[in-house]
């Protein structure tokens, strides 16, 4: 008889040891997955913060340029902004757009031409918007059509005064005219090459250090840009 018995595991890990090892591996994997997710969120937050700072600078430069006077009535140009490179600017005067009442009474064919899938329902929805508190986002929400969502705010505005549609092609601003646009309400959209988009409704106040005050703002990241909205309704 031998002096000692052979271990029951014969050199292999026991079931309990395997279970403990698997549990530890699962915990480690979970912690790693969480750490990676946290890192991605931190990077996304950092990128968003950087974009906001860059877009703030772009809007300030755009407002100063607008305060000097721009023509045509719908202007598009690019700015070089530290930390963001080239930033595209689109500036539109809100008074030149259809008001909510006029849009609500417009021919459904007009709204269809602007990309509305259900022009009648869109007309009713716009007509019900409160004139004092409605925003461009409310106008866009009147229909689910992608072209409508991208272009409706270029034609219809809660601050609009026009009775007929007017949506010219956007062109570069001309040389300074010396016109201070105090009191005017404009929609200004700044878009980076990475797709960060800062859309604002601003009122021009004419102060050099603060050319405009922000009435409404939306920051997003999207792939669609102007999408050629000016070709939808362009006066002959």
TrEMBL record:
The keyword Membrane applies. It comes from the Bacteria. The chain crosses the membrane at residues 12-33. Keywords: Membrane, Transmembrane, Transmembrane helix. This is Uncharacterized protein. The lineage of its organism: Bacteria, Pseudomonadati, Pseudomonadota, Alphaproteobacteria, Caulobacterales.
């Amino acid at each position: 008889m031998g002096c000692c018995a052979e271990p029951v595991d014969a050199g292999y890990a026991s079931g309990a040891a395997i279970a403990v090892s698997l549990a530890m591996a699962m915990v480690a994997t979970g912690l790693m997955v969480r750490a990676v997710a946290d890192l991605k969120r931190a990077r996304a937050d950092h990128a968003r913060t950087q974009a906001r700072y860059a877009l703030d600078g772009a809007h300030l430069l755009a407002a100063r340029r607008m305060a000097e006077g721009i023509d045509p009535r719908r202007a598009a140009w690019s700015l070089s902004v530290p930390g963001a490179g080239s930033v595209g600017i689109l500036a539109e005067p809100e008074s030149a757009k259809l008001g909510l009442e006029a849009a609500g009474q417009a021919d459904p064919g007009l709204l269809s031409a602007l990309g509305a899938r259900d022009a009648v329902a869109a007309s009713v929805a716009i007509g019900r918007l409160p004139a004092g508190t409605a925003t461009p986002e409310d106008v866009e929400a009147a229909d689910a059509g992608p072209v409508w969502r991208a272009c409706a705010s270029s034609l219809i505005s809660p601050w609009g005064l026009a009775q007929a549609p007017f949506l010219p092609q956007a062109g570069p601003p001309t040389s300074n005219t010396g016109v201070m646009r105090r009191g005017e309400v404009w929609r200004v959209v700044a878009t980076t090459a990475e797709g960060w988009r800062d859309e604002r409704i601003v009122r021009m106040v004419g102060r050099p250090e603060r050319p405009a005050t922000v009435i409404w703002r939306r920051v997003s990241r999207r792939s669609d840009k102007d999408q050629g909205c000016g070709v939808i309704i362009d006066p002959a």
